[in-house]
Design brief:
The chain has four domains: 108 residues, Beta-Lactamase (2-Layer Sandwich); 153 residues, Beta-Lactamase; 99 residues, Beta-Lactamase; 240 residues, 2-Layer Sandwich (Heat Shock Protein 90). The longest helix has 57 residues. By secondary structure, it is of the alpha+beta class. The protein is elongated and about 165 Å long.
Length: 665
């Protein structure tokens, strides 16, 4: 109910000279103030009433009056013209009790008005009308409070019908200004027997009235002749509808003029007193508040629909989790992809939507996201029909209404994984071609390397045959010869084995590797080429290095390419010959480094800048793919490959690989 303000106290001159006693009481029914008419009624000194109870002020009728006051405080509804017997010249009084003020929703006191039954002045009638209208507005307000935003227009129509009936008007309208500035007829009500042609464009048919309303002015027309000359179009529109008098009050919506409430009189000309306009203004305030609420909730509903439409249009899996990891919101695509219904997803823990082997990492990412504000995780999403779809999820912590949530998106990376697999296969094919090409270039050196053990085997075999043919067999010499044959055969077999490994075509397989063994394994394949180019291979290998994980064949190919490039650089130098130094080291925790340092000639700035670009080469007849392939292989292993200039001459190639201290050596 709208607060009824207390009537005038003694300090208000408007209350003097009226035959109406006014007394204000607090919630304990003790006097806060009264006017002189009330003091005369009680026949007690004026100044002695403040702080006294109602029983002390009016002993003869105090008990009955106290009961009525407590009834008003409990119901928060006024009591109008109750017949109370009070000692005095009048004996019998009509008492009106009005609750006033609020304290957490309840009244903080009452105002009591005493008047004789025969007192029928204008103030009494207006007060009763106002109280009845306040009661009507209170009833209408309760209807608005319990209505949805899409029911508010219907509530305004019903309220307007009651208001038209209350004021005995022939018709009434509520008009709303749209946000584009045009007016629309929101609601109308007509008294029985009154016909009214409703305007389709109110601001066009009543331009002067519309302009005045926009200026916030109330309009009272008791006779059409009262309209100013500039309201000619309005006069014609009003007269054509049979209206003889009208009153218009602006309505404030969203803090500005947003419409108007209108009452019409057609059967006779009518005067619109201040009291009526004031109460009509109250109705306009209530309708304005309702329209403001409807617009706000419409905007919220539209924004919610927009958000839902945006979320449902996203190709990924949107998620919103509470601090316990349970689903709060998701998009339609999650239901489509996983096959689970909204009922099955609601309240579900997010780990239930992640493949088991990823649960530990997902739980850690969730905790990290709440601690650090964001996290990312690659995992697989199991579907209801048993499929598993790879996704990359990214989430952030957000605060909404004082609560923490995880908000994010999981993107299907099936196509990305397929593309990566295809690239890896293509890369492996290209690397295999490069290895075959390198073996072709090394065939002479490898043949020479194989010739040594084969020649030794032949020599030892011939010596053994001569020993057996002579009949004089020295067991020690025979055993030594056979041992040499076995060792040379093993040496030749090892060379063939390493060649077969390098030439083998297959799927890369990452296993724990010893980097020192990896470097040593290059020597048999490059030894003869190094000797041919007058290059000394020097190995400076750090002991007890942790293992890395990688594909042995691919990393051997990288090392073979780096060593051969170093030999070629030294060969082409101004001072032929030199050392090619291969080093291994643990440069920092978790990172192994292999370096290949040559003593070749200076490299031009252009060649240095483009050396890793595909098909760039400074060698006659070279393809220019070796270093490009090598860098791709190293990066696929989580490492880096780059070059630096040496202080004196030549280059150093740097190759880093990740490692863990607890990986097996």
């Amino acid at each position: 109910m709208r607060d009824v303000q207390p009537l005038a106290r003694d300090s208000d001159p408007a209350s003097e000279g009226l035959a109406v006693g006014v007394c204000e009481l607090d919630r304990e029914l003790r006097c806060l103030g009264l006017n002189r008419a009330m003091a005369a009624l009680t026949r007690q000194p004026f100044a002695g009433h403040v702080g006294r109870s109602v029983r002390e002020i009016l002993p003869p009728g105090g008990a009955a009056l106290e009961s009525l006051c407590r009834q008003v405080l409990g119901s928060e509804q006024p009591i109008i013209d109750a017949d109370v017997r009070i000692a005095g010249p009048e004996g019998r009084w009509l008492v009106t009790i009005i609750p006033h003020g609020t304290d957490d929703g309840g009244p903080v006191g009452v105002t009591i008005l005493f008047r004789p039954p025969a007192y029928g002045d204008r103030l009494g009638r207006n007060l009763q009308d106002r109280l009845r209208f306040e009661a009507l507005l209170s009833e209408l307000a309760r209807g608005f409070v319990g209505s949805r935003f899409d029911e508010i227009d219907a509530q305004i129509r019903q309220g307007l019908e009651r208001i038209v009936e209350f004021f005995a008007a022939d018709g009434g309208q509520v008009l709303e200004l749209r946000e584009d500035g045009s007016a629309r007829l929101l609601s109308h009500a007509l008294a029985p027997g009154f016909e009214f042609d409703l305007p389709e464009l109110p601001d066009v048919e009543f331009p002067w009235i519309a302009a005045e309303v926009l200026r916030g002015r109330e309009i009272r027309i008791s006779h059409l002749d009262e309209l100013p000359p500039e309201a000619g179009r309005d006069r014609l529109s009003i007269a054509s509808r049979g209206v003889r008098s009208l009153v218009v009050c602006p309505i404030v919506v969203d803090g500005k003029i947003g419409g108007s409430i209108v009452l019409n009189s057609a059967r006779h000309e009518r005067h619109w007193p201040d009291e009526l306009v004031g109460t009509l203004r109250l109705a306009g305030e209530m309708f304005g508040a309702a329209i403001t609420r409807r617009r706000a909730e419409e905007r919220l509903a539209q924004e919610k629909q927009l958000v839902e439409a945006v979320l449902d249009s996203l190709p990924g899996l949107f998620f919103m989790l509470d601090e316990n990891g349970r689903m709060v919101r998701w998009n339609r695509n999650r239901e489509v992809v996983t096959g689970y219904s909204a009922e099955e997803l609601r309240g579900r823990h997010f780990l239930e939507g992640i493949a088991p082997e990823y649960e530990k990492g997902a739980a850690e990412a969730f905790a990290r996201g709440f601690a650090d504000g964001g996290a990312q995780l690659e995992h697989e999403v199991p579907t209801k029909d048993g499929r598993r779809i790879p996704h990359l999820a990214t989430g952030r912590r957000v605060m909404l209404a004082g609560k923490a949530y995880a908000l994010g998106m999981a993107i299907d990376i099936s196509a990305l994984r397929a593309a990566e697999d295809h690239i890896r296969r293509q890369q492996a094919e290209l690397a295999h071609v490069a290895r075959v090409s390198a073996m072709g270039e090394l065939v002479a050196a490898i043949a020479h390397e194989l010739n040594q053990p084969l020649t030794a085997i032949r020599t030892n075999a011939q010596a053994t045959r001569r020993m057996l043919a002579s009949g004089e067999v020295d067991k020690a010499e025979l055993d030594e010869a056979l041992g040499d044959i076995s060792a040379d055969a093993g040496r030749a077999s090892e060379i063939i084995r390493r060649l077969r490994e390098l030439l083998r075509k297959g799927t890369p397989e990452k296993l724990p590797l010893d980097v020192n063994e990896l470097v040593r394994g290059i020597e048999p394949l490059t030894k003869m080429e190094a000797l041919h180019n007058n290059v000394s291979l020097v190995m400076d290998l750090a002991p007890d290095l942790p293992a890395t994980v990688g594909d042995r064949i691919q990393l051997q190919q990288v090392m073979l390419n780096l060593v051969r490039n170093g030999c070629d650089a030294i060969r082409d130098g101004a001072r032929p010959g030199g050392r090619l130094v291969l080093r291994t080291a643990l440069t920092r925790p978790g990172t192994l480094e292999i370096t290949v340092e040559d003593a070749g000639p200076p490299l031009s700035d252009e060649a240095f800048a483009h050396m890793f670009q595909p098909f760039y080469t400074t060698k006659p007849g070279g393809l220019g793919v070796g270093l490009s392939i090598s860098r791709s292989i190293v990066e696929a292993h989580g490492g880096l490959l780059w070059a630096s200039r040496n202080p004196e001459r030549g280059l150093t190639m740097h190759l880093t690989l990740p490692c863990e201290a607890d990986w097996p050596r």
